[in-house]
Amino acid sequence: MRKYYGSLQYCRYRICDIHVTDIDNIERSDLTVTIECTNSGRRNTVRTKSVTLADGGFPAWPLVQPQGSFQNVFHSSQTLNRLNALNLAPEGDHVFHIVGSGQSSADTLAYLAGAFPNAKIVMSYRSYAMRPEDDSHFVNELFMPDGVDTVFNVSGEWREKILKDYWHVTHNGVTLDLLPKLYEMVYYDRANGENRFTFNRFTEIVDACETGKGAVATMKNITDGTITDVFADVTILATGYDRPCEHPLLEGLSDYLETDSTAQIYTMNRDYSVKMRQPCGFNVFLQGYAEKSHGFSEALLSLMPERAATIADEITTLELSAAGMVA
Ligand SMILES: Cc1cc2nc3c(=O)[nH]c(=O)nc-3n(C[C@H](O)[C@H](O)[C@H](O)COP(=O)(O)OP(=O)(O)OC[C@H]3O[C@@H](n4cnc5c(N)ncnc54)[C@H](O)[C@@H]3O)c2cc1C
Predict the structure, then answer these.
(1) Which of 135, 181, 207, 240 would disulfide-bridge 60, Cβ 3.0–4.6 Å?
(2) CA of 288 to the centre of ligand 1 (A)
(3) Which atom of ligand 1 is nearest to the CA of 241?
(4) Crossing angle, helix 103-115 and helix 178-191, to 10 degrees?
């Protein structure tokens, strides 16, 4: 039902080099969306009653320093572009350090091991080992429209339990067919005495810096608190993706958009609109931000058409009803 393909080059395309810089409201009735042309800097605004935000989220970055401050330390979403820019010799005896144990880490390990056959690769992760995602048949019914209804309609307590019990359906798991290939590669590497691969269990990155030669990652052992430096030519943070609340584009609407008690999740209706704190004449729909209410299908492609249809139907109904064409 679900298919995973390489995650190394997850580019953000901006159609016609146009991006949205702001979403705000006019007197409770309408929204204004500010659009900027990246090349010319020209700005325009669109006035609307409904906006759908489907921006794909943001690379999760656990370091204090901003992403742009490093040459040799970057997020896995930038792997191919950044390696290209570094112009490393394929036959060189480089050292790569991958942080994380999910699908992106596993893909990055497989790619680097093949593209740089003489490189040493260190992987550091919080867990004991990479483990498979749960892609089993019965569980996959979470990716059916009525799976979403089931998750959405149970009490908050049960929803939390479902999300906890089935976390490895989409999070921090690796496709079942890739794991034996990686293990075989590591097994023969050890058997041949090459020892190209090192796995640091129970560690997380707490800091990084660059020297003239490469990157130094400060790693903390989460079982005993000890700190170790890992030196590498390149450190790749395969640390996943965030869908923040509050979303930077929605800051101007924070008086309206309802969040849960932690203020870290938008409260969502089944039709993917955000619940409003106070009456207003506009609607904000989110695509990809409703995992905590709608379940794991939210972050994947399986139900994309169904989600899009639900949102489009709701917007059409709202428009028709505003025009007095729906009873
Ligand atoms: C590494 C990786 C691998 C994945 N593999 C799979 C898989 O195998 N199977 C699967 O089902 N799902 C997979 N997914 C999930 C899948 O990619 C998402 O479910 C899907 O892409 C979400 O679609 P979207 O249109 O909401 O967001 P995206 O596809 O991310 O599109 C977002 C768009 O919004 C644009 N944008 C962002 N900000 C602005 C702005 N301010 N103004 C204008 N435009 C903007 C971006 O440029 C981009 O074009 C993967 C995700 C990742 C990160």
Answers:
(1) 240
(2) 9
(3) 53
(4) 50
